[in-house]
Amino acid sequence: MKTVRDISITAVPKTLDVDWTPDAIFRDTNQGAWFDPSDISTLFQDVAATVPVSADGHPVAVMRDKSGHGNDAVQTNAARRPTWRSDGTLAWLEFDGVDDRMLCSPIVFETSDTLNCCAGMSYVPGGAGWGALRSLVATGVYAGLSNPSITGTISNSGGVFSLNGDAAPNDRKELREALFSPAVLSGREVQTSSFSSQPWQFFGYWNTSPPGGRLFGYVEYEGSAGAEFASLRAWMAKKTSAAA
């Protein structure tokens, strides 16, 4: 097992496993979801999941959840499917800023009243689309909300948010501007009562026009953030080519 130690002056002494993956989070029974566009075996062009994504530019209709809980992300409307892109090193879902979005079935959170979520992402400058780390599909419940021109708090479901490991701006416009470059946006201690048992989505917000941009990965899990949260952010940073 390879490890690295943070020896900066302000660091809390810790050792991170550079071979770590989010599988470590789901070895217990933690409910949640894990989406990884770099794992092309989890991506399909059709809703029946019979036609694999196999090349840059293919549409994505289904993205399998790797947590083991079957909380897949799906888009039944062919015109609203994001595109799988890769530059040979990184891979991501590309959203067109018109109508692309992926939707997830309800998750019933049973063991905790808090949720932790982390995404590698970036938004395209301009436009008017609302974006969120996580939001409901049918109502305006959100965490990590951003907008290119409208200010206001970034969450109405509690939580403590960070951007590349530092405190995230608690303002929608400032957060959007910070996400013009690929970054790791994370939230811990988000209230599960706000989200449980309802259809949800990542990257976009509610039923508003979605933003354009890139999603490099998304993971969420219930319960205490724990020591795994720092490892998750570092793992996501590698997927995003951003500082954790």
Indicate the mean pLDDT. 92
The dominant shape is globular
Distance between the termini: 21 Å
Poorly predicted ranges? 1-15
Structural class: mainly beta
What is the strand content?
A: 25-35%
How many strands, what sense, and barrel or not for the largest sheet? 8 strands, antiparallel
Question: Mind explaining what this structure looks like?
Answer:
- This protein has a domain at 20-39 and 102-240.
- The strands form 4 sheets. Strands 3, 7, 8, 10, 13, 14, 15 and 17 form an 8-stranded antiparallel beta sheet that branches.
- Strand 7 and strand 8 (91-96) form a beta hairpin.
- 45% of the residues are buried.
- Residues 1-15 have low confidence and may be disordered.
- The chain is globular.
- The chain is built from 2 helices and 17 strands.
- It has helices at residues 172-178, 228-240, and strands at residues 3-5, 15-17, 32-35, 43-44, 62-63, 73-74, 83-86, 91-96, 103-104, 114-123, 131-136, 142-143, 158-163, 166-167, 183-191, 200-204, 212-222.
- The protein has 244 residues and is mainly β.
Write the layout of secondary structure elements.
Blueprint: E1 3-5, E2 15-17, E3 32-35, E4 43-44, E5 62-63, E6 73-74, E7 83-86, E8 91-96, E9 103-104, E10 114-123, E11 131-136, E12 142-143, E13 158-163, E14 166-167, H1 172-178, E15 183-191, E16 200-204, E17 212-222, H2 228-240
Antiparallel strand pairs: 1-2, 3-17, 4-5, 5-6, 6-9, 7-8, 8-17, 10-15, 10-17, 11-12, 11-16, 13-14, 13-15
